[in-house]
Structures are given as structure tokens and as C-alpha cells.
Write a structure and sequence with these properties.
The protein has helices at 24-32, 119-128, 176-193, 211-225, 229-233, 251-256, 258-263, 268-285, 294-302, 321-336, 349-355; strands at residues 2-8, 14-19, 38-50, 56-75, 80-87, 99-103, 110-114, 137-143, 146-152, 157-164, 202-207, 238-242, 290-292, 306-312, 340-344, 360-364. The protein is α+β, with helices and mostly antiparallel strands. A hairpin with a 4-residue loop joins strand 4 (56-75) and strand 5. The longest helix is centred in the middle third of the chain and has 18 residues, at 176-193. The N and C termini lie far apart (68 Å).
Length: 383
């Protein structure tokens, strides 16, 4: 994402002009947009034309519109973002108040105006425009007949490819057909993996049994045979890990593996997994120092007890402004009092897990008695 212009007043009202440069930037933009915002962007509009003879035709024209945002639709697999709203500035093609849907495009700028830019949204812009915040990890999660190629970025987990075939069973005295199909899978995976070699910091290859070892042996045997220098030079990036299956959900256990955590200690995704693990350990051993649910976490924040706040970015997409403001105040409160704030992506496996805890949890500096216990009611003593 490229920040082209920023004009925010002291009362936090203002606008920014951004240019999305890659698919992940659409996810960041989705998290910036809220109902009631003003969005100005180039778009295609179908217009009707009437010729001097009275015949009516239609054509598609490119125009720039400013919409008051009403609905926001994001396709996480295709990374496409569509914004529907009413037109705020009339032009020759579109009347004031007419409905239109803008599909934001890569490498085309847009201007977003808000009545109030809060700290969470401004942090999101900073993260999106940070050139160092690119893909951290690629993972090949596999088993016999199945392989998932997943890209783990600071903001989301993307399934880039899935290979699924039926592998013939080995027959006594001959396993030729079995090996042929396995080699075909390895060959296809090698081809799909190559574009990410120079981008990511680490490539995890995980499977039950020896499937991962067989794939790596094949991969580098072929690299030597074809003198593939890029693959050979990036061999240190590969890391073999055990997983219970070749399905995408196994990524959670892979990222929790201590050897993986150490290797990826400087990546955002691994940091989120580690923070969530620390929370669950605290919940098990010292439950008075592990709170979850908004009401309990707010009480802990009021007591200045929060050491680390874990919160899902999904909560900041709440369309009810007072509710969203409540989450923003919580984040600001924790930061102002020296606590750490980890905003989890709901498109990461750890973010999905945090959502099961109402999307917000906290590790405390000191224990606080269980807030769910009913307080003494003095009136109950009255006869």
C-alpha cells in the first residue's frame, strides 16, 4: 500500500489518499472502511445514451465518484473488495443520491474521508504502508495425495494452491504407479512454490510420516539436475516439521511447534500464536491472571492490570459506532498504561481461535478475583 496524501485535523476528521499495490492491501482497506465513510475512486458506470433518431443504447464509461458507504463486501479468497453506497457529488453520468458499487482496483488510488480517525485505523494504515510487512512464511502442508500451499502474511493466511489426487495403493512386488503419481504431485508443488522463494523468510514443509522428507529429497535432487540456482541458494529457508495431517487446519499446530516458534520469532503470525499460548497457559495455571470477554477485560483495564491485550481485528469492523468506540478506548487505555496490545488478524488461525473467546482476552500483571462471582448483597440479610 502506498500513502499518497494525508490530511487529518486536530479533531481527527479528515481524509487520506491511498493506492493498493497488491492483493493483501484490499484486506487492509476492508479494515479501514466503515459505514458512513466517504469513498472517492475511479469506477465503471453503465450509462444509457439516446441518438438523434431516438434509438436508445448503453455503454460503459469510466468516471470518478464519491460514495457515502453503505455496504462493504470482501472476498477473502480472491481478495476483491466491493463498496456500495449513494453518490455524494453529481456528475454528467450519475445523479446525486443514486446507488453505485465501486470495485476497488490495484494500482488505482482512492480517497477515504472519515469524521473521526481513531488510533486503531491509523495504526492499520501505518502497517499497510510499511514495506517490511510482507509475506513472512510459506507452508506446504501435505500427506499422501493431498498438499496445501499456504502463504502466511502479517495480515492474513492465504491458501495459494491445493493439490489433491488419488494415489494408487502399493502392490506387492511393484509400486511403479504409486511412485509416478507421487512424483507428479511433487513436480506440481515445486512449480507452485517457486514464485515465493525470494519473498518469504521461511518455508515450512509439514506432513505426517515421511511424505515431507520424500518431497524435499525430490525437490533438491531435481534442483541439482536442472541447475536451479535460486532453489539451491534458498535451501536454508526450508524447514521440515511434523503435522498430524495435510489439511490447512494443521497450520495451527505447526506454528505452535517450539522449533518453528524460535525460527519465526520475529514474525507477526508467530508472535500471535505465542501470545495466545501464553494466555491459555495462564488460564490453566493462574486463572485470576487470564481474563476474556469484553466486560471482564474492561474491568481489568480499569484496575490498570493488563500486561498484554489480545484483540481480534474483526471487532473493529463492528458497524455500531458506540460498540466499536468501546474497543478502541480499551486499546488506547492499555497502551496509555504501558501494556502491550496484539491485534490478531481474523484471517489467521490464531485469530480464528481468539474469536472463540469473544475476540478479546488479556494476560494480567497481577491477579484479580474472579469477576463472575456474585457480589455480597446486603439486602439479602434483611428479614
Amino acid at each position: 500500500m502506498k500513502l499518497l496524501h494525508k490530511d487529518i485535523e486536530k479533531d481527527n476528521a479528515g481524509q487520506v489518499t491511498l493506492m493498493p499495490e497488491e492483493a493483501e492491501d484490499m484486506w487492509h482497506t476492508y479494515n479501514l472502511l466503515q459505514v458512513g465513510d466517504s469513498l472517492r475512486a475511479s469506477t465503471i458506470r453503465k450509462v444509457q445514451t439516446e441518438s438523434p433518431t431516438g434509438s436508445v443504447g448503453s455503454s460503459r464509461v469510466r468516471t470518478t465518484l464519491t460514495l457515502c458507504v453503505e455496504t462493504i463486501d470482501f472476498d477473502s479468497q480472491a481478495c476483491q473488495l466491493r463498496v456500495k453506497g449513494t453518490n455524494l457529488e453529481e456528475n454528467q453520468y450519475v445523479k446525486m443520491g443514486a446507488y453505485h458499487t465501486i470495485e476497488l482496483e490495484l494500482n488505482r488510488k482512492f480517497t477515504l474521508a472519515k469524521k473521526s480517525w481513531d488510533s486503531v485505523v491509523l495504526d492499520r494504515i501505518e502497517q499497510a504502508c510499511d514495506a517490511t510487512q510482507k509475506a513472512d512464511v510459506a507452508a506446504v502442508v501435505m500427506q499422501e495425495g493431498l498438499a496445501n500451499l499456504v502463504l502466511v502474511t502479517p495480515a492474513m493466511t492465504l491458501l495459494r494452491a491445493k493439490v489433491e489426487v488419488t494415489i494408487p495403493r502399493k502392490r506387492r512386488g511393484s509400486c511403479t504407479q504409486h511412485e509416478k503419481v507421487a512424483v507428479m504431485v511433487y513436480c506440481l508443488l515445486s512449480f507452485l512454490l517457486l514464485p515465493f522463494l525470494l519473498v518469504v523468510k521461511c518455508i515450512l514443509v509439514a506432513s505426517p510420516g515421511f511424505v515431507k522428507d520424500q518431497f524435499i529429497t525430490y525437490l533438491f535432487k531435481e534442483a541439482v539436475r536442472h541447475d536451479n540456482k535460486i532453489l539451491l541458494e534458498n535451501r536454508p529457508k526450508f524447514m521440515l516439521v511434523h503435522s498430524s495431517s495435510g489439511h490447512k487446519y494443521s497450520l495451527k499446530e505447526i506454528l505452535s511447534d517450539p522449533t518453528v516458534t524460535n525460527r519465526l520469532s520475529d514474525t507477526k503470525a508467530a508472535g500471535e500464536v505465542k501470545a495466545l499460548e501464553d494466555f491459555y497457559k495462564m488460564l490453566q495455571h493462574e486463572p485470576d491472571r487470564a481474563f476474556y470477554g469484553l466486560a471482564h477485560v474492561e474491568k481489568a483495564a480499569e484496575a490498570l492490570a493488563i500486561d498484554t491485550l489480545l484483540i481480534s481485528d474483526k471487532l473493529f469492523r463492528h458497524q455500531d459506532v458506540p460498540t466499536r468506540s468501546r474497543y478502541v478506548r480499551l486499546v488506547d487505555n492499555v497502551r496509555d498504561n504501558g501494556g502491550n496490545v496484539r491485534i490478531f488478524s481474523s484471517l489467521h488461525v490464531s485469530g480464528e481461535q481468539l474469536t472463540q473467546l469473544s475476540g478479546v482476552a488479556a494476560i494480567l500483571r497481577f491477579p484479580i478475583a474472579d469477576l463472575s462471582e456474585p457480589e455480597d448483597d446486603s439486602s439479602s440479610d434483611d428479614d
